[in-house]
Amino acid sequence: MSNHRRKHSRLTEYNYSQAGYYFVTICTKDKEHTLWVGAGIARPIPVDNSQIEYQLSPVGEIVRVAIEGIPNFYPNVVVDKYVIMPNHIHMILILTEVQAELGRAMPAPTISRIVNQMKGVVSKSAGFAVWQKSFYEHIILNEARYREIWQYINDNPAKWTTDEYFQ
Prior knowledge:
The protein is α+β, with helices and mostly antiparallel strands and 167 residues long. The protein has helices at 58-73, 111-126, 143-155; strands at residues 20-27, 45-46, 52-53, 77-84, 88-95, 98-99, 105-106, 136-140. A four-stranded antiparallel sheet has the order 4-5-1-8, sandwiched between helices. The longest helix has 16 residues, at 58-73. Mean pLDDT is 83; it is low at 1-8.
């Protein structure tokens, strides 16, 4: 039996429910190519110099609906940018202050709660475990980093064959 311990990347003193910008990456279980049609053999088709065309699989469509539905569960969360890759997704989530009816700020859900609920919705709808156990997040602290991450997400499909998750 392996003694491998999962590395925890969360900052212990950071409140992941506070308003801010977060870059999240979630990988499929065993990094299986389940989110694009033909992802194991097909390559994205260049439409022009800036766009790549690919087709989501049925599971990929479930993921798309779940990502776009996050604000329905959490009105204080904005999915600012996302991309669905063959075996992972990237998102920029923006958490805003939650205002109660009486004008008081209410506690927001944590990034972990948001991601875990989305992962659960996808796996339940797909009928099997789609995701790896954990996920990666990065707190976006300034506009320059935000723009860099936004561009990375935007360009990710075109760079699939050189992506660190390409197998």
